[in-house]
Amino acid sequence: MRKNPIVLNIKIIATTRFFNIEEMDIEFSNGSKRVYERLKPSGNDAVLVIPMLDIETVLMIYEYSGGTDRYELALTKGKIDDGETPIEAANRELIEEIGYGANKLTFIKEMTIAPGYQSSITYIVLAQDLYKARAEGDEPEPLEVAAFKMADLENLVYNEDLTEARSIAALYMARDVINNQ
């Protein structure tokens, strides 16, 4: 049976605008001790939204990504603001990023990105029954919205512009949820 190790000490060793880098002193149940480092977001968790224009069409965005220094194809995503639920954040991000809100928002799953060294959680939300709505977001430029058919999902996930694992996994999960409705 797994027994969580004991966290002996946590200290911040570096801070940026977006992350704190923490050093963790850990003791395992067998007495072994290790020092771990992790990225801890300075803010809240995030949402990733699968906006379905209709039963067959998903809306995605092209957005500049500093990590890869290029425009990436991805699903709508963003941080959860203080006081927001993941569902409220999902709808706000939809309105800000793609110009639609959703009458039906369904929580699918929590995901982590790299749990070995990063502590943030992303809430995956399916958005259906969309309506036009627009609000100012925090993007530095207007985002390009692109429509794709879920029937072509097998080709879409091999699109060279779609490399984000969360978006790829969320598309498959959304397909399964939609097929079971």
Automatic annotation (TrEMBL):
The keyword Hydrolase appears for this protein: yes
InterPro entries: NUDIX_hydrolase-like_dom_sf, NUDIX_hydrolase_CS, NUDIX_hydrolase_dom
Pfam families: NUDIX
Domain Nudix hydrolase: 39-175
GO cellular component terms, A-Z: cytosol
Keywords for this protein: Hydrolase
GO biological process, one term: nucleoside phosphate metabolic process
GO molecular function, one term: ADP-sugar diphosphatase activity
Cofactor: Mg(2+)
Xref: NCBIfam families: PRK11762.1
Protein name (record): ADP compounds hydrolase NudE
Protein source organism: Candidatus Ruthia endofausta
Taxon lineage: Bacteria, Pseudomonadati, Pseudomonadota, Gammaproteobacteria, Candidatus Pseudothioglobaceae
Chain's gene name: nudE
